[in-house]
Structures are given as structure tokens and as C-alpha cells.
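re: that chain from earlier
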Amino acid sequence: MTFQSTILTHPGLGNSGPEHWQSLWEKQFNFTRVEQQDWETPVCADWITTMNDYVQQRGPENVILVGHSLACTAIAYWAQKYNVHIKGALLVAPSDTEADTYPPGTTGFKPVPLIKLPFKSIVVVSSNDYYVTAERAALFAKSWGSQLINIGDAGHINVTSGFGDWPQGLDLLKQLDN
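^ sequence. v structure.
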């Protein structure tokens, strides 16, 4: 599988470890990770500034963002502030920063922006994600103008949930690359 676009991955809170599907994809396809200065107590304004720098350096029209968890919210905030038209975004397991179950320590990530994104996007959710209800995830996807794909009982779609190499996710990313 080859990709025509510039793929930028963006992990969520705590970063993605070496066995996470984002890390495996980066190694396999030479994707670039948006490296944030603070993965443990992030500030939204810092994250979106860094994300914008990465996107602008690579030419937005050919960029696809691949966000996991908190990064999905960051991408929505980035789109709200910068309104940059990129090729697309794959938004996996968006977490609900307004939920009681969301871990403390983040700044500026709530409320979750309920805006139409200015680019094509796919939101992938699970029916039993601890960090977001299926109903809230559907609201995010609808508000963002995203295609919603619920992959069933898949937890937070991370290593803990059994998602290392994730070929179905790559197939969804390929849809945005066309």
C-alpha cells in the first residue's frame, strides 16, 4: 500500500507507544508524527499552534491528519482557529473532554467544538469506549460533517483494546488519500 498524501499522525493524551497503530504506521509508511512538547498536561493552544506549523511546512492541500483520542478534539480546535483546507482527517476514538470519565490535567480542550470541519473527515468510534459514549461520538461526527464508522466493541481503539497493527484503519485512511 502506498500513499500519495503527506500523512501527519497526532496521538492523544500521553502520546502513542511503540506498539500503537499510529507508531506502527509511521514506521511502515514513513508517516510523520506531530511532536508536541507536553503529552501529559497539554494546553490546547500550544497543541494547535504546533499542529499548524507542521501542516503549513508540508503544504496543507496534500496533508491528511490522523488523530487519536484527544488529538481529534485538538484537530477540531485547529480547524476552528485556522480554517485551513487540508485533504482530510481520520479521527479515531475521539474522547469527550467534557465527560466525568475524562482524565484531569488538560487545559483548553473543552467544550468540544461542534463545528463543520472545512475538509473531508472520517470518525471511527467504538460502542464501548470508556472516554466517549457512542451518542456523543455520533454528535461529534455529525457536527464535524464527518462520515461515522462504528467498529463495535473495540474499546478506545488502542493497544490496550488489542489494536496494534490495524489494517482496517489503513483502508479508511486510503479512502481519504484518493
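The chain is about 35% helix and 15% strand.
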